[in-house]
């Protein structure tokens, strides 16, 4: 796998906890192995070329290494009242990706949606096929 798990990736970010308070959640049970398995499982299931490139690079033995910056967390969806965990990764172009996950029957994470902001500052959202 071509992934680098940054120091502190599996701990809540204090400023996020302070900002969102009770609406913030962080799950520390995902391990690097489980995240790597989620990428392997997601390979070839996303048609957006930028998102698919992240996954292909993550699962390859590559000289490019993408980062996992933060483990599974959920601070954003205050308006809709939803609870959808995601983890954050970053490619070598410095684009941040949110990988939204559900849980398979065996407890492993399953990436079902990926979002990022493109060069035109548009939010791109792609769902698993």
Secondary structure tally: strands: 7
> Radius of gyration from the CA trace?
14 Å
Portion of residues in helices?
A: 10-25%
Report how far the terminal alpha carbons are from each other: 23 Å
Uncertain regions: pLDDT < 50 for 5+ in a row?
none
Would you list the SSEs in sequence order as H and E?
EHEHHEEEEE
For the record, the count of structural domains works out to: 1
Largest β-sheet summary: 7 strands, mixed
Topology diagram in text:
Blueprint: E1 3-5, H1 14-20, E2 25-26, H2 32-42, H3 49-59, E3 66-74, E4 86-90, E5 96-103, E6 109-117, E7 123-127
Parallel strand pairs: 1-3
Antiparallel strand pairs: 2-3, 3-4, 4-5, 5-6, 6-7
What can you see in these coordinates?
The chain is α+β, with helices and mostly antiparallel strands. The protein has one domain. The chain has three helices and seven strands; from the N terminus they run βαβααβββββ. It has helices at residues 14-20, 32-42, 49-59; strands at 3-5, 25-26, 66-74, 86-90, 96-103, 109-117, 123-127. Strands 1, 2, 3, 4, 5, 6 and 7 form a seven-stranded mixed sheet that branches. The longest helix is centred in the N-terminal third of the chain and has 11 residues, at 32-42. The radius of gyration is 14 Å and the shape is globular. The relative contact order is 0.21. The mean pLDDT is 83.
Please sum up the structure shown.
The protein is of the alpha+beta class and 129 residues long. It has one domain (3-127). 22% of the residues lie in helices and 32% in strands.
């Amino acid at each position: 796998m071509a992934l680098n798990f940054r120091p502190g990736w599996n701990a809540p970010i204090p400023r996020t906890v302070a900002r969102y308070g009770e609406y913030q959640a962080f799950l520390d049970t995902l391990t690097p192995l489980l995240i790597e398995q989620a990428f392997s499982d997601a390979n070839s299931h996303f048609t957006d070329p930028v998102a698919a490139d992240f996954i292909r690079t993550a699962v390859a033995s590559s000289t490019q290494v993408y980062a996992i910056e933060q483990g599974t967390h959920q601070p954003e969806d205050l308006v809709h009242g939803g609870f959808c965990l995601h983890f954050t990764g970053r490619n070598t172009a410095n684009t941040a990706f949110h990988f939204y996950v559900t849980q398979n029957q065996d407890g492993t994470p399953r990436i079902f949606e990926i979002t990022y902001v493109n060069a035109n500052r548009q939010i791109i959202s792609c769902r698993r096929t």
